[in-house]
Amino acid sequence: MRKLHSIFTSVLTALIFCYTTTAQHKIFVANGGDDSNKGTISKPLKTLDRAFQQVLEFREKGYAEVVEIFIREGRYNFHQAIKLDSNYSNIRISAYKNEAVSFFGGVSIPVNAIKSVKLNGVSDTVLAINLKAYGLDDYGNIRSVGFARPYGASWAELFVNKKPFHLSRWPNKGMIPIEEVLDKGSVPRNDDFSNLGGKFRYDSLRVDAWKYESDPWIAGYFMWGYADDMVSVKEINDTERTITTKIPTLYGFGDQKPWRKWYGVNILRELDANGEYYIDRSRGMLYFRSEEDVKQVEISVLEDPFFQIEGVKNVAVKGITFECSRGLGIAMDATENVTIENCVFKNLGSLGITVGQGITPFKKYRHEGTGTATSGLVGSLQQHLYVNTTFNRLAGTNNMIRGCVFYQLGAGGVSLGGGDRLSLAPGNNIVENCEFYDLNRIEKSYRPAVHLTGVGNKVRHCEMYDLPSMAILMHGNNHLIEYNYIHDVCLEVEDQGAVYYGRDPSERGSVIRYNYFKDIPDHYNTCAVYHDDGACGLKVQSNVFYKAGKWNVLIGGGSDNAYINNLFVDTKFGIHIDNRLENWSKGLLDEEGLYYKRLMAVHYDQPPYSEAYPELSRYFEDKPSIPKRNILKDNSFVNMEESILDGNKEWLDMDASNELMNQEPVPIDKYEQEVFKLAKLKGTAIDSIGLYKN
């Protein structure tokens, strides 16, 4: 009997221990909690900092199992990044039972602080708030943003009723043409670093008054339609009607092209429209206009990521809204099996998530260069990749971003690294079932919904729309882009595509399949899939292209691209192909030129490249200036305005399996139904494209 009692006691003790440790592995955080509590559902902690400290305490006791951090409904203010290293592996951070949880990087101002005031030079009354009265004296720096400039934190932004307002500007919408350029200024793209601004004429009387502004800026597309920029104004001469800038723009200033346009920004006198604001930095006064009743006023402050995650495994972040900051949402690198799921990223000054290291922002403004790899930011990554094409971002593997929404952001959605270009080892990092729209409030061009880098990463079942520039920018090898609905993109730019890659013949093996490309404007040179400057080795299969650009496809001199079983509907041209490497881009093939450097960087004629891409090993012996082995098979072209092919048939193997069709006119509201019918006949899985219910 004594022996049985001993056994019973031992079992009971073990059960109690198991129950206790299991209970301890759930930590609850609530706004009404207290950090002296144990972190149970009835006695929650108050702060996330204390919750993560408790995780470390568990680890010190030898508990290696999963720790769940449940966050109760409410807003949690962030003043700096929470940094998670390898000590925080095996944790789950989630909103408790789908309660509304907000991670907030700003300051709320009570609406009773709003006054109506009349300002000199400003029509009508405006709304005003004394920010200094609420402890706000750091408004960030208005900085140059645009093509070839680094990603970075925004200046202080205003959000009214959760809607982003913008710096006061003219014109209120759109841009105006650049008049005569008198001085294009320095041209950093040509290694001219003399830092001289440009000078051009304007023809509007209202600009005359801007000479009294304390800090006026101009933004727009100053030379090329793919290169936006924003620069400060040095002088406005109302006698000569000229604007002179303090600093140069990358390509210099130009005129006489339809995309060369500009607008003024941070102009107090132009505070005349709903959704505009201006901060008088010397006085700490915020001025703005709102046509709707103001119920919430928020100012962004945080410049760090909310989470900076490095070297962890098996971490999940679920059901959280990240909002109202100047920086990005989550930065992670060297991670494995990290899942960001069912989160919302909105009202941020930069992008939503970066996976992989970035590059410390260059001090000198230049098109490309070599920088320092850094965690927690994106910075000058794109400029570094131009020179260092095999740069391994150490992003980690098997990470997933799923079921998230990205909108009202400043500079794009996700920067997704992973994999190694030298070994062709895949990252298998995935963006899936995410919605992206309105991502470029501040930084426009080359700030896509997803920037794919590295090897073997995936973007699938996403919807991307309402973007001024590209949806997906691709660098690297063996990526997969599938089941995405991409529409209403490239709304502002010239010479871009919804999916874009180029200038590196070693970047091969990627696949674009089962996507729906729709409603890409054709007022400039735009397309759905852009193989720029000799881009090679892409397989595009079973996609639907409907009113998708001036051309659905642009192959800019490259080889070994395959288009199989696609449906092309209602555009000027189906496919453009050219031989630019024989003429205006032939410098790319110079001895020890750009292509030589990029191919040598990956040892293109040795394994694994020579085995993965056998045709690549003879690249220079195979007359690379002439496009070849581009395949067009089993495609259908419906109602082409001009022709299937814009280019020489010798550069594209187009056999009899391709068909040209002319559909009978149908009512506009039923036309897309007809497109879907045709798509189903071709087996393009049109019903599976886009977001799925999560």
UniProtKB/TrEMBL annotation:
Coiled-coil residue windows: none
Database matches in SMART domains: PbH1 (SM00710)
Membrane-traversing stretches: none
Residue stretches making up the Right handed beta helix domain: 395-566
Highest rank taxon of the organism: Bacteria
Annotated PANTHER family: RIGHT HANDED BETA HELIX DOMAIN-CONTAINING PROTEIN, SECRETED PROTEIN-RELATED
Protein name: Right handed beta helix domain-containing protein
Organism, as annotated: Zhouia amylolytica AD3
